[in-house]
Amino acid sequence: MKEKETAQPPVSLARLVKAADADQAGGKDRSYPDGVHLVCKALLELGFVTSQHDDDGRFGAGLLVGYAALQRSLDTPAHEATGVPDKDSLKHLADTTHLFTAAR
């Protein structure tokens, strides 16, 4: 008998960018904790963040640094590796870890 595949939850790029932008502007945006949690978990799994202390539902400084490291590992030019998620890096993170699917 074939095992039933479980659909991975979608993570919205637009909502991640909004959360990252709000946090970098000095806010404490927790408007998308589920998506931020999945991205943090994926970055932790790949070694781009070193602990889950950054997993507080915000796209704070620790996640920004870790996400920028992911972007640089994908040969994103340094001036574009800001840590704010982009379409290609989010898809790579989703495809590599299988924790979520990348959505608009």
Describe the structure.
The protein is mainly alpha-helical and 104 residues long. It has one domain (10-103). It has helices at residues 13-24, 33-45, 61-73, 87-97; strands at residues 10-12, 101-103. The protein is globular, with a radius of gyration of 13 Å. The model has no long low-confidence stretch (mean pLDDT 89).
Any descriptors?
104 residues, mainly alpha, two-stranded parallel ribbon, 4 helices, 2 strands, 47% helix
Tally the structural domains: 1
**Poorly predicted runs:** none
Measure the end-to-end span: 35 Å
Strands of the biggest beta sheet: in what spatial order?
1-2
Rg value: 13 Å
CA-based shape: globular
Total helical elements? 4
- Main beta-sheet strand count, sense and barrel state: 2 strands, parallel
Helix and strand content put the structural class at mainly alpha
Query: Helix coverage percent of residues?
Result: 40-55%
* Strand proportion: 5-15%
